[in-house]
Amino acid sequence: MEHKYFIFNKPFGTLCQFSGEESDSLLGDFYNYPKDVYSVGRLDKDSEGLLLLTNDNRLKDKVLNPSKKKAKKYLVQVDGAITPEAVNQLQNGSLQIKHKGKTHQVAPAKCKIVPQPNIEERDPPIRVRQNIPTSWIELELTEGKNRQVRKMTAAVGYPTLRLLRISLGEILLEGLKIGEVKELSREVAYKALR
């Protein structure tokens, strides 16, 4: 079997699957992927950005196996002017979130406040409230519980408004427009996820 590797800039509102309701936005709406290719991990419907798809189970394990601690980096727009104290809480491993009905101690992460990034507008745009500022952070995790970034920013008092994954290992979203797909060679995929 020939292994194939793709990266996709997932738009807001698209599901990380190939089948669903007629009204759903699905992966196959953007590219004619080979039949046995699936997404490696997920981004929820409200999240955007880098999604890796492949039929190579060895590579999937490199990404998804928690013991491998593959770094995933996100740009996150939060509600309010985030404080250095909140950033410290996001990165120092002291946060607890709910996951599958249980309390989960979040692993230490990397987090910093960043200027508004030069990225495409979301469709539809986020809601804007005149009196409340927003801020952007870059957050890098080595774990990936369901809706973890959203739960973390909410736990420190700054709900997520927009969430965009920009890297997975050394695979970068850079230069890929919303809805675009790019095929990678096996060498590039493995080197970026070593």
UniProtKB/TrEMBL annotation:
Q: Which family does it belong to?
A: Belongs to the pseudouridine synthase RsuA family.
InterPro entries in UniProt? PsdUridine_s_RsuA/RluB/E/F_cat, PsdUridine_synth_cat_dom_sf, PsdUridine_synth_RsuA/RluA, PsdUridine_synth_RsuA/RluB/E/F, PsdUridine_synth_RsuA/RluB_CS, RsuA_PseudoU_synthase, TruA/RsuA/RluB/E/F_N
A Pfam family hit = PseudoU_synth_2
Instruction: Please give the name of this protein.
Output: Pseudouridine synthase
Q: Which GO terms describe its molecular function?
A: catalytic activity, acting on RNA; pseudouridine synthase activity; RNA binding
Which PANTHER family does UniProt cross-reference here?
PSEUDOURIDINE SYNTHASE FAMILY PROTEIN-RELATED, RNA-BINDING S4 DOMAIN-CONTAINING PROTEIN
One biological process term from GO is: rRNA processing
Name the lineage: Bacteria, Pseudomonadati, Bacteroidota, Flavobacteriia, Flavobacteriales
Q: Give the keywords, sorted.
A: Isomerase
This entry's Enzyme Commission designation comes to 5.4.99.-
Gene3D superfamilies xref list:
Alpha-L RNA-binding motif, Pseudouridine synthase I, catalytic domain, N-terminal subdomain
Stored SUPFAM superfamilies: Pseudouridine synthase
The record places domain Pseudouridine synthase RsuA/RluA-like at 4-155
Signal peptide positions are none
